[in-house]
TrEMBL record:
InterPro entries reported for this sequence: MetI-like (IPR000515), MetI-like_sf (IPR035906)
Record localization: Cell membrane
Membership in a protein family: Belongs to the binding-protein-dependent transport system permease family.
TM ranges: 64-85, 97-117, 123-146, 167-193, 213-232
Annotated PROSITE patterns: ABC_TM1
Keywords: Cell membrane, Membrane, Transmembrane, Transmembrane helix, Transport
Keyword Cell wall biogenesis/degradation: no
PANTHER family: ALIPHATIC SULFONATES TRANSPORT PERMEASE PROTEIN SSUC-RELATED, ALKANE SULFONATE ABC TRANSPORTER-RELATED, MEMBRANE SUBUNIT
Predominant localisation class: membrane
GO CC annotation: plasma membrane
Domain ABC transmembrane type-1: 57-241
Protein's name according to its UniProt entry: Sulfonate transport system permease protein
């Protein structure tokens, strides 16, 4: 008897919850440090009813969305300039590789010094982290387009920008979407740290308050929400892949 794919996908999370439950049950006096799934669920329901969790999620979503849009836009633009023009590659590629070696989290002190402790440094740190995966994968996608298509474009007398729109962009789209998946994951990771910069709202602020009062159950709720939002972001990109790359055989499977 074949198990439906939807049930198979639930087996992994169910196993993790089971391990968590067993670990919490055997914690004994340390149960406050490692609350069980039932305690975390009860706390999550309480935070939902009070409105704290929805408000925190909305604030965090706004930050990560703004940062990802800025970072992805910058990455795509730089990749197009560098991938389509040799002079663009000469001017852009090396500086981008130098800058991407600088970890976003190490830039937190400078971001505070330059931009203060408001929303701007949080958004800019997310944009910084999300720019480079999109650039690298989009650039690789542009350069991996089969050169025979150039001859096809010339034989059809297509203009340069028409060829870019009809040939280069579709060929680079798989790489761009892979970069977007990496960028969304990095966006949530950087958000966790950036929201520790004197945030007055968001999941990070909720975790900071919970740490001060040793509310590990609230901290677990926030961590689970971060993980769930990251998973939903990844699923969103997977849906985009199925829609935008339906012309590729591997994305036509049910």
């Amino acid at each position: 008897m074949r198990i439906p794919s939807a049930i198979r996908r639930l087996l992994g999370p169910a196993l993790l919850i089971g391990i968590w439950w067993v670990a919490a049950s055997t914690a004994g006096d340390n149960s406050r440090r490692l609350p069980g799934p039932d305690a975390v669920l009860a706390t999550g329901i309480e935070l939902l009813r009070s409105g704290q969790l929805p408000d925190a999620i909305a604030a965090s979503l706004q930050r990560v969305t703004t940062g990802v849009v800025l970072g992805v836009s910058a990455g795509v633009m730089l990749a197009l300039l560098s991938g389509l023009f040799r002079i663009g590659e000469d001017l852009i590629d090396a500086p981008v590789h130098i800058l991407r070696a600088l970890p976003a989290l190490a830039l937190v002190p400078l971001a505070i010094l330059w931009f203060g402790i408001g929303e701007l440094p949080k958004v800019l740190l997310i944009a910084w982290a999300t720019c480079f995966p999109v650039y690298l994968n989009t650039f690789a996608g542009i350069r991996s387009v089969d050169r025979s298509y150039d001859e096809l474009a010339r034989s059809l007398q297509l203009g340069r920008w028409t060829a870019v729109r009809r040939i280069v962009v579709p060929g680079a789209l798989p790489g761009l979407l892979v970069g977007l998946r990496y960028s969304l994951t990095l966006g949530w990771l950087v958000l966790v740290v950036s929201e520790q910069i004197n945030a007055s709202s968001g999941l990070g602020q909720l975790m900071t308050d919970a740490r001060q009062f040793f509310r590990t159950d609230v901290m677990f709720v926030c961590l689970l929400v971060y993980g769930l939002l990251g998973w939903l972001s990844d699923r969103f990109v997977r849906l985009l892949e199925r829609h935008l790359l339906s012309w590729r055989r591997e994305y036509t499977r049910p």
